[in-house]
Write a structure and sequence with these properties.
Length: 468
Amino acid sequence: MPLETDPGAGLSRSLASFLAQARVEDVPSAVLHEAKRALLNGIATALAGFDDPVVARSLGVLRAFAGPPRASLIGRSERTDALTAAFLNAAAANVHDFDDTHPATIIHPTAPVAPALLSLCEIEPVTGRAVLHALALGMEVECRIGAAVSPGHYARGWHITATCGVFGAAAAAGRALRLDAARMLWALGIASAQSSGLVETLGTMAKSVGVGAAARGGLFAALSARAGVEGPAAPLEGQRGFLRVMSADPPIAAHITGGLGERWEMLDNTYKPYPCGIVLHAVIDACLALREAPGFALDGIRAITVRGHPLLRQRTDRPDVTCGREAQVSAQHCVAVVLLSGAAGLAQFSDAAVADPSVQDLRRRVRVEEAPHMAVEAAEVQIHYADGRTLARCVSQARGGSARPLSDRDLEDKLRALLAYGGADCDAEALIDAVWSLDEAPDASVLPRRAAARAPRAPDGSRTRPVA
């Protein structure tokens, strides 16, 4: 398969050179601030997910194989080795599907990258400013590689957050380790050997395993490259490299190198106000608006129609969900639970909400239709009543999207809410302050330490504090 704008054998080498030579002084202040926002949101989502069964069970499996306890686990007082911490923190950040989204690729950029850096800065001396720089570069790499293979990569069934996230984690960790260009190239090559993840896993625990593996794999790639483990010369553009093997369409290499260091994908990053698939956010906004409309009533609803871009039906036409994970990508559940409760938080996408008889009853009356002329970020919801009335609301831009972004204060409030939901024994205000002041920190490990719990849990699940 030919590459559009074929760069020859130099693409991977050019990218590695850029990463090795990049200077934080050349990064716009807006990009570094966006890196802080990404960290704040990523830690917030991990604080909600740290005790999820997939994280708890994975910790139970990995604990027996863990190395020296040198790295923090978000929301927990227990420590573990850096690779295991990267895996578990990434899984926790991604498990509720409440993490950030890069609209052009639908990658969730922070979850695979930030945990690798948070673990690294506890085993290596790294300043806060260096972490922010590395995070920006890692997110840039994964989003640009994702853009080069989109949309065919995801459509073919590859879970792009995991497959491209491992490159971002490797690039970020490599930058923080100050790898030279040769070793940075090896790190990208070792990442390419681990790139994996399937869309088929969405709605199951395995989805978060894939994202956790990307964070761990990227950190492993950078550490291995520093130790002298070599990789291929052209892991991206090679005849059997990532771009050709993993793309359904001719990959566009210019998306990786075009404007590199001048145009920043991070500035397009978005943050979710609702814990579900991004294509459902306009649906939620429409349902919330309908609840406020004159004449709205739950009684007498005959049918509900959801209309949107074909991607909406392809990804979320799932009427028969059986658990909260599936509900995160179900338009039927989304409409039913929001109309009934007037909210769209983690409780609305729980197993209990899925099992609620009133939700199940209303869910059966929801159908999803394609409207090819509508933008991906838009949706319309129509409620058809038995008496012949119809109420409808159309949302062209969902809250949290590029046109209606969450503010810094919104992200702070999100962290407070998710910390309360997860029940971790952390100081929210100290953690928020640590993120906003990270560029001034001589030791970046202050951040993962703030995100860890201050006291372990008692056997009954309650928190206990050590005796002074």
